[in-house]
Amino acid sequence: MRLDRRAFLAAIAASAAGRAGAATGDRDVVGEALRPWRPGGLDIHHIATGRGDSTLVIGPDGSSLMIDAGASSTVAPPTLAPLPDSGRRPGEWIARYALRRLADTGGRAIDAFLATHQHPDHIGDVDANAPLAPDGRYRLTGVSDVDALVPIRRLIDRGYPDYAVPVPSQAPFQRNYQAYVASRRARGLAVERFRPGALDQLRSGSAAPGYAIRNIAANGQVWTGEDDAVRTRFPSMAGLPPRDVPDENVWSAAIRISLGRFAYFAAGDLTSSTYDGALPWRDMESAAAEAAGPVSVAVAPHHGMFDATGPGAVRALDAQVWIIQAWHALHPSPSTLDRLLNGRSARVPRIFATAMADPTATASPWLTNRLASRQGHVIVRVATGGDRYSVVITDSRDERDRVTGVFGPFDCRK
């Protein structure tokens, strides 16, 4: 549901009046259920399924954006156990979580969905056990599982319509995703190509002053900082040796969400690896971070692995809070945690992981013990106006949304 300006301002006034009469309802309390979204506030939910990335954004005006819906089928021991359990597919758990949060807005649909790139832990894996969709054209997993339970009004991805860059997609999970996209188009549902530099593509509402979602980078293009202009970092793929053609991660979409002084950065699986300087143009992560500028909260690209969350990006973003969406024993790498915790920034950021494998935690306890949280859904709650925000952790082992930790409020940078 999206509120028009008059309804939005009325809701803000009613919310303020309610807070005056019941102050305890304005904050989250450990041991109690997560409080509902309030008009004027920005909530960013990092959903922990142990199977990949998924983020739900509820804007100040009640508009909704989901970023990715991972459903990796890689099995233990390198991966984490499914959360809350294996009784449903990851996309189903994500959809059920989204419905609980959308209920706060009076809505039952996702206004926009951004698939940052085509990997199973971001769009869904597929095997013979995945059920067929009603039209029989694709199997339900990840994004399509979400869409089956929570209608997606607009689907945006980096490769539509031909998915030919960097090379035509051939993996079963890619073919399945593209069959789902084709089915949407056949049913008259909206599908769009992500437009780097755009300010008008991902935000569905229009009532909240100061709320913006900027498309920062994708497909080798990065926003210049002026209007919606972009520059291209990649050379022509036609002249590259096959081994130098970037993999799917490097083509990921990156965005910046802002409300007042608050800013947030997310970039799928963008990486900073240049093969030790041999191919500097591959460092799309640093370029995107520089275009985004300093933020309050950043999601560690590529789950905080060794080839991402590099020094250039960490310096450029200078985030107060880092969030790691983890599902594998390599998430995060010790080198990444060392960079974040022992860097030369004026402040040491707080780090929150949606999950962490036991071997990861025990291998580098001098780093992992310094994380603010290592288990649970991570919710960033930005106050009306965007001057302050808090981080709330809820239990990911069931669907009660019980608060297990509250951090902040923190003042946004001036």
Automatic annotation (TrEMBL):
Coiled coil regions, renumbered to chain: none
Organism (species): Sphingomonas sanxanigenens DSM 19645 = NX02
Highest taxon, organism lineage: Bacteria
Statement: the UniProt record of this protein carries the keyword Transferase: no
InterPro entries xref list: Competence_DNA_uptake, Metallo-B-lactamas, RibonucZ/Hydroxyglut_hydro, TAT_signal
Sequence ranges assigned to domain Metallo-beta-lactamase in this UniProt record: 53-127
Signal peptide: 1-22
Keywords: Signal
Keyword Transmembrane helix (UniProt): no
Protein name: Metallo-beta-lactamase domain-containing protein
